[in-house]
Design brief:
Oligomer: single chain
Helix content: 10-25%
Strand content: 35-45%
Largest sheet: 4 strands, antiparallel
Strand order of the largest sheet: 1-2-3-4
Radius of gyration: 16 Å
Order of helices and strands: EEEEHH
Number of helices: 2
Shape: elongated
Number of strands: 4
Length: 100
């Protein structure tokens, strides 16, 4: 498999996300390639799959194929994760105005 190293920016719900994807982070002895995502938000604001604004994620490189690009994969992951009760509660609290 050809090594791919892609850096991209994704804006999701007004959050700037930096994505660094390496398709062949290290070779597996079983013949598939282990890919790696390094995902960071500007100012380390939370995302549905990370409270810290940073996420390191490994996967089989073939899992990316149906999404076409690393950014599309991350966007789909965000949209699916945003359906959780925890994320909905976070967004509600974040958007709630306070008097104090």
């Amino acid at each position: 498999m050809k090594d791919i190293d892609i850096k991209s920016i994704l804006i999701w719900r007004e959050i700037k996300i930096k994505i660094h994807y390496k398709s062949n982070y290290f070779d597996s002895t079983t013949g598939f390639s282990i890919a790696h995502f390094d995902i960071t938000t500007e100012n380390r604001v939370p995302l549905p799959f990370t409270e810290s604004g940073y996420r390191s994620h490994f996967l089989d490189a073939s899992e990316l194929e149906e999404y076409g690009t690393p950014a599309n994969f991350v966007k789909a992951w965000l949209e699916e994760s945003a359906k959780s009760k925890e994320w909905k509660a976070y967004e509600k609290k974040k958007n709630q105005l306070t008097l104090f």
